[in-house]
Design brief:
Layout: E1 10-12, E2 15-17, E3 21-23, H1 39-50, E4 55-62, E5 74-75, H2 82-94, E6 98-104, E7 115-116, E8 130-131, H3 134-153, E9 158-163, H4 168-173, H5 188-206, E10 212-217, H6 228-241, E11 245-249, H7 270-279, E12 283-286, H8 293-302, E13 307-310, H9 312-316, H10 320-325, E14 378-382, H11 386-397, E15 401-406, H12 414-418, H13 426-440, E16 444-447, H14 453-459, E17 463-466, E18 470-472, E19 486-487, H15 488-492, E20 501-505, H16 509-520, E21 524-529, H17 540-552, E22 556-559, E23 561-567, E24 570-575, E25 578-582, E26 587-590, E27 594-596, H18 599-603, E28 610-613, H19 623-636
Parallel strand pairs: 3-4, 3-13, 4-5, 4-6, 6-9, 7-8, 9-10, 10-11, 11-12, 12-13, 14-15, 14-17, 15-16, 17-28, 19-26, 20-21, 20-26, 21-22
Antiparallel strand pairs: 1-2, 18-27, 23-24, 24-25
Helix pairs in contact: 1-2, 3-5, 5-6, 6-7, 11-13, 11-19
């Protein structure tokens, strides 16, 4: 496919950009604790500019010490920041792209001082923020302008004013959080004044040819918040003040879908961005689950939007643009919208924060490096689930001779089952990506083959990796053997259910997804969970939408309930010290996770080579851990 629009140059004010792909300003928390630029941050940006994006937006930079929003956020509060920030600009320019510095104050999301236009907490029960005086508003305007001047001195091509997602300037323009009656409140023009004054100040200090972008939520998705008509009105005010780009996002992080899991539709901000684009004459960009180049091309062709802002898809694959341009779309590591490492397991694996479940190299560019193997080994990998697939292609890329076995006739392991519930289909895209990488690097894939001890001993490989996954865990509850229960995996794989009333025992990720799946098909579902909530290990943004579907499909939940006995048509549960009997169900489904399945390890006592066990076969966990361990193992051998 030819990406005639996506790869065509376009301008933002006086700045010409080589294509219409903006790398979104995604927080990666790789700066040093004092806000200075680290080598890790430089490596992260270098990987993305080398991947072909035309315009790189940095993550947010705080313009006042009071506005710092995370421990490892970039600072631009003084001229001392200029040398480090120049290093980032130089790397991006050397890669042939342009760079924009995003300017921000945390406001109610600050970790230093909670400030807001009005004394309204983010959530009921949160600390009430300090309501800024008019003098503090003008001081903030001045600090944003000073920060823009520093960015220009550091070699940046433009700046963006962060006016979205529940940060301070977003709170000013939102009627939800701005109840002021002075010059910075009231009408849309009053709420926008602090931003329009910042734009005017930047233009005066940096020149009319220095572009200014405004990051704006096209729809805040909250009660009393801005809708797309309001965002279009604000955009007209920003354009009149001198803005060159409206960079449309959506939501208010923490309360209004500011972070989009897989259950949010692709391009969920496009309608709002298009309305804005039709109202203004300046360029408009849009973000929000634009994860496939074909879709990016389509929306540029069919709307008035001129740029796409791609975020987590560039976590998953920094070479997204390069691969699309070369017609290698099936080699793009996909963002599956899981939020598991970009917003979930922040501290997984080592002392860093964010990464990507599908691509563990993201934000670890200095630590995880693929190097040629010192000696090519013959390696057998048993199990083509995510852990085995990841290990296999990386080992082959490093120069090892890899044979990959799986007893099923296609790859995927438990990911194939996990892809069945609502909004999980993208996991199949991850498997096809891993399988494609195995093909590219010459892995000998032998699907539909169950490996035995004799096969391994006959081949005599240097290393055997067992990644045989897990099997459903059936807890030893009285009556469970006699009750003829189903497992969550059996249900997801299409087990025939004769009746409509189902009791699901287990409300963790697997149980919740099994119930979600059944609810979509109209079953009358009740979930029993011993913890105090459902799907507690899922990211909050994922849980919010899951709970919405539970309500829509009338899925009932009992939490803090321990199952004491199972019957063919129900169970006895203990809740708060009292016994509750649940009967009259057509099916009982056990979905409480898996236990390791690894029979070969005990059988290979007379194997003289190196034996490694990965993923659930080693210890029942999750896909984040399985893929990460597959990566680490492949890089060490």
């Amino acid at each position: 496919m030819k990406y005639e629009y996506l790869l065509t140059p376009d301008n933002i004010g006086a700045l010409m950009v080589k294509n219409r792909v903006i790398m979104a300003p995604m927080s990666v928390s790789l700066a040093n604790k004092d806000g200075t630029v680290s080598d890790d941050l430089l490596a992260y940006y270098k990987a993305r500019v080398d991947g072909g994006a035309g315009l790189i937006f940095t993550e947010y930079c705080y313009v006042q010490e009071s506005g710092k929003s995370s421990e490892s956020q970039i600072s631009i509060v003084s001229d001392d920041a200029i040398p480090g920030l120049r290093r980032v600009a130089d790397i991006v320019h050397e890669g042939g792209a342009k760079i924009c510095l995003q300017l921000q104050h945390g406001g109610r999301r600050s970790i230093v001082t909670l400030m807001a236009p009005s004394p309204i907490p983010m959530l009921l029960g949160d600390e009430t923020p300090h309501a800024m005086t008019a003098g503090e508003c003008y001081a903030l305007i001045a600090d944003f302008v000073k920060a823009a001047v520093r960015a220009q001195k550091a070699g940046y091509d433009m700046v963006e004013v962060h006016c979205s997602h529940g940060y301070l300037l977003g709170d000013f323009v939102s009627p939800r959080s701005n109840r002021r009656t002075d010059e910075f409140g009231g009408s849309a023009a009053g709420r926008a004044k602090i931003v329009t004054e910042i734009i005017k100040g930047i233009k005066l200090a940096c020149g009319n040819d220095f572009p200014v972008s405004i990051r704006l939520s096209g729809d805040e998705f909250v009660t009393d918040g801005n809708k797309k008509r309001d965002a279009a009105e604000l955009s007209l005010l920003f354009e009149a003040a001198g803005a060159d780009l409206i960079n449309v996002s959506g939501g208010v992080c923490g309360v209004g879908h500011g972070i989009a899991p897989a259950a949010r539709e692709a391009g969920y901000n496009v309608d709002a961005a298009n309305e804005i684009a039709k109202a203004v004459s300046i360029a408009v960009a849009v973000a929000g689950r634009i994860n496939e180049p074909e879709y990016a091309e389509e929306l540029l062709r069919t709307t008035a939007i001129r740029f796409v802002s791609i975020g987590r898809a560039l976590f998953a694959d920094p070479d997204f643009v390069k691969k699309a341009a070369a017609g290698r779309e099936d080699e793009i590591a996909p963002c599956v919208g899981c939020l598991q490492r970009c917003y979930g397991h922040f501290y997984h694996g080592d002392d860093r924060k964010r990464s990507c479940m599908i691509n563990p190299f993201a934000m670890r560019e200095t630590r995880l490096v693929i190097k040629p193997a010192a000696r090519a080994k013959r390696i057998t990998v048993v199990g083509a689930g995510p852990s085995g697939l990841e290990a296999a292609w990386l080992l082959a890329k490093r120069g090892h001779h890899v044979t990959l076995y799986d007893k099923n006739d296609m790859p995927g392991g438990q990911f194939r089952i996990a892809a069945v519930p609502p909004h999980k289909q993208l996991l199949t895209r991850a498997i096809t990506y891993y399988d494609k990488m195995c093909q590219i690097y010459g892995v000998d894939c032998r699907y539909g083959t169950e490996v035995t001890k004799d096969m391994i001993l006959a081949e005599n490989p240097d290393t055997v990796i067992l990644a045989t996954g897990g099997t459903p865990f059936i807890p030893p509850i009285p009556g469970v053997k006699e009750a003829n229960v189903l497992t969550g995996q059996e249900v997801l794989l299409g087990a025939c259910l004769k009746g409509r009333k189902v009791l699901v025992i287990g409300g963790g990720a697997q149980g919740a997804e099994t119930a979600d799946h059944l609810g979509q098909y109209g079953y009358d579902v009740t979930v029993v969970e011993m913890r105090d909530g459902i799907a507690l290990d899922d990211p909050e943004a994922t849980r919010i939408l899951l709970y919405e579907r539970f309500r829509e499909n009338n899925i009932k939940t009992l939490t803090g309930a321990t199952v004491k006995r199972v019957y063919a048509d129900g169970a006895d549960c203990e809740m708060g010290g009292e016994m509750l009997t649940l009967r009259g169900f057509d099916h009982i489904v056990i979905a409480v996770g898996v236990r390791s399945f690894n029979p070969l390890e005990a059988e290979l006592t007379d194997y003289n080579g190196e034996l490694i066990v990965l993923g659930d076969a080693h210890k029942a966990s999750d896909a984040v851990e399985a893929i990460y361990q597959g990566t680490i193992t492949a890089l060490k051998l």
